[in-house]
Amino acid sequence: MHENFFHKLKVYYEDTDSGGVVYYANYLKYLERARTEALFSIGFSNKIVQDKYNSLIVVKSCNIEYKKSSHLEDELIVRSFVKSITKTSFFMNQIITKGEEVIVEAQVHLVFVNKEGKPVKIPDEIYSNFKPYFCDTIKT
Q1: Which is it for strands 55-66 and 75-85: parallel, antiparallel or unpaired?
Q2: Whether 69 contacts 22, CB under 8 Å
Q3: What is the total count of domains within the chain?
Q4: pLDDT tens for residues 31-67?
Q5: What's the Rg (C-alpha) of the chain?
Q6: Residue from 15, 17, 51, 124 carrying the catalytic annotation
Q7: Is 15 a catalytic residue?
Q8: Is 138 among the domain residues?
Q9: CB neighbour class for 7 (10 Å; exposed up to 12, middle 13-18, buried from 19)
């Protein structure tokens, strides 16, 4: 059984179009914030990954499905979990909900790279701290 990371957010005026509907590209920002907070919750940050491990975590691909609109002042929750992992990358599934309604579903492929952009092994310390959040499918 895997655990989920949870990140709460509120839709602000700056996130919406003139009709009060969240602009589609802002959901990518919400997903990024949730991933950053997930990393922070296991004791790391993007800065630590850069400074301590000389690595970056980059998005290789993102498949996103918009199911419903969200609006000004809606309170949303982003739920994230690691779907699968390899030596250098992992897939994170993320779901944005408003109450019980699913607003967005996304699968994001994240890769650890060095400063030259070449894939590198995920540091053991980060891997082991993420382990409780892995789904059942671990790839080698």
Answers
A1: unpaired
A2: yes
A3: 1
A4: 999 999 999 988 999 999 999 999 999 999 999 999 9
A5: 16
A6: 17
A7: no
A8: no
A9: buried
Tokens of 75: 């309170």
Q: What's the whole-model pTM score?
A: 0.89
Residue 140 inside a domain? The answer is: no
| 139 belongs to a structural domain | no
- State the Cα angle at 134 between 44 and 89, rounded to 5°: 65
Tell me the sheet residues that pair with 70. none
Residue 100 included in any domain = yes
Residue-wise pLDDT tens digits, 62-94: 999 999 999 999 999 999 989 988 999 999 999
What is the domain-level CATH number for residue 92? 3.10.129.10
Q: Half-sphere exposure (CA, 13 Å, Cβ side) for 114?
A: 5
Structural domain harbouring 33: 5-133
